[in-house]
Amino acid sequence: MDTIEAVKKDLHSYIDPEKAAHLPKFFQAHPGGYGEGDLFLGVTVPSQRKVSRKYSKIITMDELEELFNSKCHEHRLTAIFMLVLKYERAKTGHEQKQLVDFYLSNLSAVNNWDLVDSSAYKILGPYLYDKDKSLLYELAVSNNLWEQRIAIIATYHFIKKDDYTHTFELAGLLIAHEHDLIHKAVGWMLREVGNRNFNAEFNFLIPRYKQMPRTMLRYAIEKFEPALRKDFLAGNI
């Protein structure tokens, strides 16, 4: 049995029929939904992580690419988990670049919020931290929902390093975006800034919060003191 078939067999052993029925609704896989066309086995994330740890060292990049481009959501997410593990084990810049190039060449498969959120700040963020960040700005203005989410979520790695510059600049670019998945992503990253540096987030919000989509603002101020949160929502700051 080749590695791909072994991965698929192991994932199938964890299928939960109730989750299989629920997940298409949760990820909007219906016609016209952002996850349209996705197929779901009904396998939990912890089980997918268990499978990824078992096979990440032995799966080839060609095999990984095949999983990346499966119509099955759990195949793609498990492949992403394996790519992240490979990146974390990479010992040289050359190895890291090869894995990032693979990620970017298969970006069309990173096409739902969990796939983005499990990879962008674990692969692209670390790689670009000490490099030119222009790629993130290209993704942010690409008119592709998932590439735009990748751009802002990748900065989570920078935030963890107390570098907020690119989070703020990308948030500014995306502030008028029409989709709530971008509103949530931007709000989440701003909240993470505030968790580390309240004044930095507060000063960013003051001239912009009245123009923000409501969901973005609610996510951004979620951890503020109740009275201050109320004033922001009322436009009284």
Layout of secondary structure:
Blueprint: H1 3-12, H2 17-26, H3 45-55, H4 61-68, H5 73-89, H6 93-105, H7 113-117, H8 120-128, H9 134-140, H10 145-154, H11 156-160, H12 165-174, H13 180-196, H14 198-205, H15 214-220, H16 226-234
Number of distinct helices: 16
Overall geometric form:
globular
Mean pLDDT comes to 96
Order of helices and strands: HHHHHHHHHHHHHHHH
How would a textbook summarize the main sheet?
none
What's the gyration radius in Å?
Answer: 19 Å
- Terminal CA distance: 63 Å
Q: How much helicity do the residues have? A: 55-70%
Residues in β-strands, percent: under 5%
SS content category:
mainly alpha
**Based on DSSP secondary structure assignment, what is the total number of beta strands?**
0
Low-confidence stretches: none
Explain what you see.
The longest helix has 17 residues, at 73-89. The chain contains 16 helices and no strands. It has helices at 3-12, 17-26, 45-55, 61-68, 73-89, 93-105, 113-117, 120-128, 134-140, 145-154, 156-160, 165-174, 180-196, 198-205, 214-220, 226-234. It has 237 residues and is an all-alpha fold.
